């Protein structure tokens, strides 16, 4: 029998009288009937169920199960498609055969670059030696495992094995060698790295506690109230100092009196099309009343530092009090100056006000998501805590406002390193200037989307500080700042966060851990391999809570990047050729820089259309097209990362023989991470 229901409801539509209840009887789901009854004594909805059908519940359960099965099938289909696409990308990458070693060798020109290439090949050769040794040792261990030899073999058992045969004699010698000669120094090195790891983890924990305290107490830099009221009043006698900018596009719309701001466009590019388009853009804003000038350098000596130094030497700079610096892909909001400049008023000790970065493409791919986690921690924790408690942090090179007097007092921009922003910040700190970081003032920019661009950026960011440390250490020791500030600058700022961090990350997790699988007499505790790294990753991800699902990829990727950071740290510390290599970080143009790229493309199409399809190309255009083809982006294979991937996977296989669960899973997933990065599958994929 079909279920039968009655609903009591207050009728208030056109088919019933006002206040008349309606009874709806459902004998069949497709057949509805309606009858009018006497008005009840109340107006509430009443539902009365005369019969409950088990068949209906069964049908509902069936539909729910079918829906879940459909979703599961969709997930499996998506997973299958993703695996197929991954396999296709791997085949295409291997078939292309473009490696970072070959590309760096083909582009070598100067003696300095040749030396860099030799050092890079030497490092890669060492990794290959480790890999081949691990494969040979794995063969030995597998053979020993099937012979039934345990890893805790006593000397009496070894003597018995020694008398059996040649293979047994070789393996016995190997066991005695690792017990007496290899295990002690390896364990000593492991213990040293563990101590460094614990010290760095403690530093990270203290920074997080400082950030928590700032949030709990709601501490934030607040400018003087009268400076804000002056800006809002717009009075000529108000605090409206002379400011000049060093960027384009968004800075022309900054909310500041036109007579008190000068925008300076600094260009040292060698592309004539780009230069002409920038000039045209500057001319357009000049017609609209903006005070904007264009400066182009013929040579790129000193790179960014040389460009800034050249600009600061202009005669008109002496009329200005502050300088705001923006890279080409940064877009400050119109109220940027009104939120930063007031912090300088009536506080002559403030030399720098730094704003936070935000990213337009942080969800573009996995690589940008992982970068966002790192930079969110850098700004919200490191920069903010150091600003509040020490009044010092590293200048980020852009989205900041400097007091020009502080720059001049510190010696101005120097071209001696590739981190001119950190250089000027350290020298200003030694001269007693204080810094302010504004976590609530953001400046939009862009993250590199390809692994190649990110890798080169990280190399420059980690080799430059080591160059600077060697150069400024005597000045830090001789300076008049307090002992506590000297300790913070030398030990925490440089040694712990710039040298020790990449050293132990690479040495402990990429070299010592796999070696302990083949020399089991030296061991790493499970809490070093798993628990503390997981806790530190959790702390790192707190400033970006939406990225919590990526905590495991973040942990693995940070260890993967340690090979690049370690290589950069060594090259900067010992002044190798790659330490002085300046490579502009390639962006995809999703912020202000993209407009310029679009204009370039549009200009090229218009020129070709005006000439006509049949018109022959000029020699210059042929050369430009040839250069464009040469500069075409490609995904490539990174041999160092690939070698480490096979080394870690070999060690993971070896760990199965000794049933080390946590070590096995860590080595397995870390090896897969190195494999994906080595095949350039983590960032932008170029068809």
Automatic annotation (TrEMBL):
It is an enzyme of class 2 (transferase). It is a multi-pass membrane protein. The chain crosses the membrane at residues 122-146, 188-214, 489-518, 637-656, 662-682. It is found in: Golgi apparatus membrane. GO terms for biological process: cell wall organization. One of its GO terms (molecular function) is glucomannan 4-beta-mannosyltransferase activity. Pfam families: Glyco_trans_2_3 (PF13632). Keywords: Cell wall biogenesis/degradation, Glycosyltransferase, Golgi apparatus, Membrane, Transferase, Transmembrane, Transmembrane helix. Residues 604-634 are annotated as: Disordered. Residues 323-532 form the Glycosyltransferase 2-like domain. InterPro entries: Glyco_trans_2-like, Nucleotide-diphossugar_trans. It catalyses: GDP-mannose + (glucomannan)n = GDP + (glucomannan)n+1. Its EC number is 2.4.1.32. GO terms for cellular component: Golgi membrane. The keyword Calcium does not apply. The keyword Transferase applies. Residues 625-634 have a biased composition (Basic residues). Probable mannan synthase which consists of a 4-beta-mannosyltransferase activity on mannan using GDP-mannose. The beta-1,4-mannan product is the backbone for galactomannan synthesis by galactomannan galactosyltransferase. Galactomannan is a noncellulosic polysaccharides of plant cell wall. Belongs to the glycosyltransferase 2 family. Plant cellulose synthase-like A subfamily. This is glucomannan 4-beta-mannosyltransferase. It comes from Arabidopsis thaliana (Mouse-ear cress).
